[in-house]
Amino acid sequence: DVKVTQSSRYLVKRTGEKVFLECVQDMDHENMFWYRQDPGLGLRLIYFSYDVKMKEKGDIPEGYSVSREKKERFSLILESASTNQTSMYLCASSYFGQGNQPQHFGDGTRLSIL
Amino acid sequence: AQSVAQPEDQVNVAEGNPLTVKCTYSVSGNPYLFWYVQYPNRGLQFLLKYITGDNLVKGSYGFEAEFNKSQTSFHLKKPSALVSDSALYFCAVRAYNNAGNMLTFGGGTRLMVKP
Asked: Which of A32, A55, B15, B62 has the most crowded Cβ, counting Cβ within 10 A?
């Protein structure tokens, strides 16, 4: 089975801190994604990456950056955390393929910014 | 642009009854369509997908979905609901020609199955 592991299940940080969320997948997937999930809004894509050192902005990239130095690891960075970034963050990965491959998700990081 | 609508925030059904969770989509061209399920404090799990071919797609845990091109719908169904099916369900779409390989998700529908 595909395993997508997010480093923290729960995280509490303070406004203005730089926050790192880590994600590792074990299936040699080319694509990796970061989403945030908010009630009633579903999942919104923050960034995705289709290869090492490559990244593309999603729908809501403002206030976030990403890093992909190795194929299996994709990090989400909140440069200066704000209270409106309190949310559930989900990482996913998939084969590059033709876009018909399902994405595999981690269990999420529930981030609270105080 | 591509979009997904799940018109019901919550669906309530009695155990043993059939269930339907609705999804409509909008894309340019042909779609890839997906259903995912999310249990409490977990990530999303893939249930099934429509790529091409038969309009009725069968997936995990006895779920199936019917693709209807004229109505641009992809409703999730199950003939007999279980209490353990209670969860949050997401529909997602991607256009064939979406070079970014990005899915667009609906807002989610909470399914409550009562004993």
From this structure: A32
- Give all domains of chain A, ordered by start, each with its CATH number: 4-96+104-113 (2.60.40.10)
Q: State the fold for domain B3-114.
A: Immunoglobulin-like (2.60.40)
List, as ranges, residues 26-65 from B with C-beta within 8 Å of A.
32, 34, 36, 41-46, 49, 51
CB-based contact B77:B18 (threshold 8 Å): yes
What per-residue confidence (pLDDT) applies to B101?
63
Residue type, B23: C
Quick check: A63 and A79 in contact, CB under 8 A?
Answer: yes
Q: Where are the domains of chain B?
A: 3-114
The Cα–Cα gap between B17 and B72 comes to: 26
